[in-house]
Amino acid sequence: MFVACILVSYPLQFYVPMERVEKWIKRKVVETKQEPLIYTVRFGGVIFTCLMAQLIPHLALFISLVGSVAGTSLTLVFPPLIELLCCYSRGELTKWVWIRNIFLISFAFVGFATGTYASLVQIIEAFGTSDI
Fold first, then answer.
1. Sign of the CA dihedral 69, 67, 52, 48?
2. For range 28-54, the mean pLDDT
3. What is the DSSP string of 54-89?
4. Phi then psi dihedrals of residue 99, to 5 deg
5. Is residue 69 a contact partner of residue 116, using CB atoms and an 8 Å limit?
6. What number of other Cβ atoms are within 10 A of residue 71's Cβ?
7. Per UniProt, what is the membrane topology (predicted)?
8. What residues contact residue 69 under an 8 Å CB cut-off, 6+ apart?
9. 3-state DSSP call for residue 110?
10. CA dihedral 96, 97, 103, 106 (to 10 degrees)
């Protein structure tokens, strides 16, 4: 089931970056060479990401580190900051908005710190030598 989920979800995850690359190719490359180049870049991107997944030892540890940094930022830091900016621009910045968003950002900082610390400790344990 895990392989089936990846097989179905990988094209969806790869869609957004490829859409950006295709727009760049369509602006910069002659029309007759666009389609072969687009397929070459798609194939190269898939092969590159698969090679990186195979070549990075302990990939799960790296994914954990990226998740603790990027996941926390995207889910708990940026939305409150965006809300603060939007409320400020509309003149609707109340005490309740400040309290709620400061609480969320503080919670995000705790999650970021503990998640990053745990990931780094696991990486050090995995790559550390027992001779030192």
1. negative
2. 90
3. HHSTTHHHHHHHHIIIIIHIIIIIHHHHHHHHHHHH
4. -60, -50
5. yes
6. 15
7. Multi-pass membrane protein
8. 112, 115, 116
9. helix
10. -150
The pLDDT of residue 129: 63
Helices 59-66 & 95-127 angle (0-180, nearest 10): 160
Record the tokens describing residue 59, joined without a space: 């990939």
What SS3 class is residue 31?
Answer: helix
**Which residues, 6+ apart, have CB-to-CB distance to 79 below 8 Å?**
104
Token pair listed for 75: 């889910």
- HSE, CB side, 13 Å, CA atoms: give it for residue 36: 3
The count of other CB atoms within 10 Å of the CB of residue 56 is: 12
pLDDT digits (tens, 9 = 90+) for 61-84: 888 888 888 888 888 999 999 999
pLDDT band with cut points at 50, 70 and 90 for residue 60: confident
Task: For residue 117, count other CB atoms closer than 10 A to its CB.
Answer: 11
